[in-house]
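Q: Fold this one first, please.
A: Sequence and structure below.
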Amino acid sequence: MFKLLTILWNSFKMALGELKNNKLRSGLSLLGVTFGIFCVIGVLATVDSLQQKVQGDLKSLGNNSVWLDKWEYGQGGGGSYPWWKYINRPTPKRSEVEMIKERSSLAEYVAHFVSSSATLNYKDFDLSGVSVYGITEDFNKIQTIDIVEGGRYLSEADFKRGTAVAIIGNQVAEDLIGNAQTAAGKEISVNGRRVTVVGVIQKQGQSFVGGFDYDNSVIIAYQFYASMFNVNQGFGGNNLIMIKAKDGIPSSALVEDLRGAMRQIRKLSPTQEDNFALNDINMFSEQADSLFGVVNLAGWVIAGLSLIVGGFGVANIMFVTVRERTSQIGLKKAIGAKRSTILIEFLLESAFLCIIGGLVGLFFVQILALVLSSVLPFPIFIGGRILLTALIICVILGVISGIIPAFIAAKMNPVKAIRTT
């Protein structure tokens, strides 16, 4: 163990000495390694951070759930979207929620969701264009809604009686009332109707996958919503039913179960097409994973080219180093140093050179992460897995780059090597 530590320390000192004595040559040779590690860590860190953000946003839509709507999701937009095929389909109805619960054996929770926009008023201040969400009892069992301390979620009595109470988004509370922490208990006006705020939703931040903008919303019970808006039209907003599968049931099985249930509910004959859409939320997660896989691959290709260039640079340093230390190598072998010791010393020195180049790349990635985190709607973090990957790449690259020079050094004739000047 002591011998191994001695070899490691000597190799590390020789790597630092090489950088110190030949700053320009070593710096230029390690530039490829630095840029390659910069690309690897930068791409992996950015993609991982973005992937966690997107997957978190998708999870907030309802994990392992299906959305019943008249619109098909994920078919692209613009002129290619066959909107004329779906526009005349019937919108989901509140009565269908109970029918789905009765007919579906795989559904755990079923919730109706409708939305419109409204103008809010508090004292003398108006806030227009705010989304108003009407929901049923199971909504918070499918969606994740956290309430700021001091407030509460809608109660069972609120849903049954259609009580004039609401929970509001964090941004709405800040803009309308001035403080999200003290908004609970305040009375506001929603399109002229007096409503008591019973809770404020924890700040959500910008979502990359659409869904619900909870920060700029007002959530009320479906019964109260129906007394204010036309629930069959939704005023151009959303009108859908969310269904979450039971534990252990894949969403794909739930889709087929719901298809049979909905065809019965809407009394469709075997020859008639579905007049509803069953949108599997897990599908978006799989599509996101595929996209990130392509981005990761592109990053690895760019990084790989840079690392190849860096590897040639490190190999060049090691060839020059072996030539400069020929007499020292001969002297070591003359006093008993084994071939394996010489080989390991040069391989470790090559690996340490790559690690030093990688640390410089990591330093620049950390600066980039701080800059991007300040401008992007999600933080960039460099996880331990990414750092370990970068270290392994540096060691492997160092060993590959230094293997030929190290073998040359290990096989030197000590007598000839000592005579070399």
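Q: Good. Now the second chain.
A: Here it is, same layout.
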Amino acid sequence: MQTETKQMRINVGPQHPSTHGVLRLLVDLEGEVIKNIEPIIGYLHRGMEKLAESRTYYQYLPMVDRVDYLSSFFNLASFCYAVESIAEIKVPKRAEYIRVITMELNRISSHLLWLGTFLLDLGATSPLFYTFRDREKLLSLFEELAGARLLYNFYCFGGVKQDFPPYWLNKVKKLCEELPDLFNEYEAIITKNPIFMERTKDVGILTKEVALDYGITGPNLRASGVETDLRKEPGYSVYNEFNFDVCTRENGDCYDRYLIRLDEMRQSIDIVLQAIEKLPGGPPDKLFVKRTNCGCGEENCKYCGVDTLLTEKKVNLVNFKPPKGEATSLIEAPRGITSCYVVSDGSKNPYRVRWRTPSFSNVQVLPELAKGSLYSDLMAIFGSLDVVLPEVDR
């Protein structure tokens, strides 16, 4: 007697914890085998690009954090570098070092959240408590620095809004010295775990060719053996002053995408420790930055804007008007290359702002990776790509 399996279409999401946001997947199944997937996005669209046109440059800065709420420092850096390029604003080296330190700590906190939720997608709960335990330490440092735990609004055009608080760098250095041993704890319960290896090895293989065709960047591309990292080549900020490796893996499966992020966190620790040692001017011994903004909007008001020692010159943020021009910045963010394109017409408001974020490509490649896989592998594949849905929809 011969049985016939009929193809069935099911919805995964848009309300589903393992889609990491409001994502709908139309999945065609034949038995337990995935025949096709159609990602449906747009449920979280907030008009982040269009909103820039009705706000001044400084008013738009807090919104930039929300493009990808897990890597706020990178979004701020991308927007600021584009605007600074148009306005020809020079950023002091100390401010660049502060940006690098905060961005690399942000990279670690983002990867830690990914790691905990990825294992949760696979049914393991213990790693989530480990990763959130250590991510909490980083968030406490960010809160002490910027007054916020997730959306920092800490960079400004020409530098940063304030210097490090007293003893903040000592706390960072101590944590960076502890983290490698904590990472070893993760690996002790994850890396050689037979169930984890069975669920991730040779699952969702992303080849170099497919990755490049879909515009995949960041850890997902490097896990497929492509050695590319904007911090090295062509380089930006002061990354050329630090010694670090571009981490790569060869198989391009879920397992290698896990390993590559562990490798990257260790490299980020090295960069932070080097930056602390080389920090121009040395560690601060007191808070010396005064922030004032009377809001009058007068061109020459001495109180409007942000007074800080960490910009080359005072920038009147209330009446900030970069000259006509356009610029594109490229940042190596935790999920890949984040690009911000800004057009200025010489007024207080940006004429156009466009974002290119890595999670969009990571979603679009999912059908290529999941076809022919078992349905039980779907969340392992999708979770390994590290997608943040607000970054997809913007």
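Q: Anything worth noting on the second one?
A: The longest helix spans residues 93-121.
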